[in-house]
Amino acid sequence: MNIHNVKLTVSAVSEKQYPKTEMPEIAFVGRSNVGKSSLINKLLNRKSLARVSQTPGKTVTINFYNIDDTVHLVDLPGYGYAARSQSEIKKWGAMIENYLRDREQLIKTVLLVDSRHAPTKDDCTMIDWIRAYDDSGVIVVATKTDKLKKSQIEKNLELIWETLELCEDDVLVPFSTKDDEGKFTVWDIINMLLSADAKSLEE
Fold first, then answer.
1. Structurally, how many domains does the chain consist of?
2. Half-sphere exposure of residue 32, counting CA atoms within 13 Å on the CB side?
3. 11 in a domain, yes or no?
4. Cα–Cα distance, 180 to 42 (Å, whole number)
5. Which of 33, 122, 140, 181 could form a disulfide linkage to 176, CB 3.0–4.6 angstroms apart?
6. Is residue 1 part of a domain?
7. Domain holding 104: CATH number?
8. pTM for the full model?
9. Is the four-CA dihedral 109, 112, 118, 120 of positive or negative sign?
10. pLDDT tens-digit series, residues 71-115
11. Are 182 and 149 in contact (CB under 8 A)?
12. Which domain covers residue 147, as residue numbers?
């Protein structure tokens, strides 16, 4: 996709603040510090549009990024940061689940996992949530592959595939912000999703 204009539409904490548009939305979700903001910046060729923090759990809002008035890329709050209070964790969980369940503009949720480690219990719970609201196949992006030795990548991807119980309808994309690994694959997926959504609206 040739990107011309990108802007943060809103950082929302409730449904009332969501953008009042009919634009399709593709959401990115993952545990705290998995690299969602870095991935979004990489996709959009921006260095700091999405704020990257060294402090896990920093993103406590749902951030909507408008791409050429064509699609919103949505950065959901990170989960699994133990230092947060139980009330905060519960609030974030409700925020994410309500968005996944109720947002009509949402056409796909992409799960990010850290390629260096086996998916966590929270990752497995999240993929179950995604499957509950979307039965068309899961898209998983394995981030930070540049931090692995080449000999480790295939083995780690196999572990992710098995732990998340992925099947032939699912997609697993290795991704690195240090080079372009995965960037164009993710854009191909986004463009395919947008084309399918536009076609469904015409029918």
1. 1
2. 18
3. yes
4. 8
5. 181
6. no
7. 3.40.50.300
8. 0.91
9. negative
10. 999 999 888 765 556 777 677 778 888 899 999 999 999 999 999
11. no
12. 6-202
